[in-house]
User: What shape does this take?
Amino acid sequence: MSALFEPFTLKGVTLRNRIAVPPMCQYMAVDGLINEWHRVHLAGLARGGAGLVITEATAVSPKGRITPGCAGIWNDTLAQAFAPVVASIKAAGAVPGIQIAHAGRKASANRPWEGDDHLAAGDPRGWPTIAPSAIAFGVIEYDGRDEETLAEAIELARGFKAEGLDLLSVSVGFSTPTANIPWAPAFLAPIAQRVRREAGLPVASAWGIDTPELAEGVVRDGQLDLVMVGRAHLADPHWPYYAARTLGIDRPAWVLPAPYAHWLERYRD
Ligand SMILES: Cc1cc2nc3c(=O)[nH]c(=O)nc-3n(C[C@H](O)[C@H](O)[C@H](O)COP(=O)(O)O)c2cc1C
Assistant: This one.
């Protein structure tokens, strides 16, 4: 019996398993408008078998985009472009989610593969950034690993829960680029588990949970309710099928849609 492939229900919404595709910017939108790239990308991921597919950071205003290629939802035309994406994700048996975002001081940047830095002043593709803090992106505020910071975060999570939050995704913000992040497989899982236990909230988390065994372990051990599998999904959009086979679940091919599953099951190696 696999914990990773147990359904998860929250307020009447049931995910078919604990695997989530986290938001991943594609930098392929034009003036905020998503297009064929996003439709194919997200439908493919949903067909791959994840329970939840969350669309990339989607800006609430043009200035809230990270780059000129970021998705937006600041008018009806932009919002309507998500309708076929939502339909495809649902048709594939997954639940669609969206990350509503404002990039604040991270905004007006190049696409990562074109420089991964701010657009130069005077670049016609750039724009003046606005943020809740006057401190420029790149200045250290605090390290983030110490007990005091975590205790504050847990207290904040309790407050959000009291205001009606249902599930929290525990992640790292990269707002302090020089922070010493203790990279390791599933390194955030114990931190997320503390939030889960001490704030009494279901949690999701990501970062380096890229093998079926690790994903199974963090759910089985009560560290996470949902496992966000990001880059492993870019490498293999059918990652849940790989996980199902590795974990030995019954008839693993049926994690995928019938036009794939039937043949994979019939002509198994
Ligand atoms: C190409 C790419 C784009 C990403 N874009 C976003 C984003 O839009 N919003 C966000 O919160 N995180 C974003 N992330 C972070 C992922 O959601 C995820 O937390 C991270 O990749 C760690 O999970 P992984 O180790 O399974 O890849 C992005 C990651 C990648 C690789």
User: Anything to note?
Assistant: Residues 22-25, 56-57, 99, 171, 206-210, 228-232 surround flavin mononucleotide (CB under 6 Å).
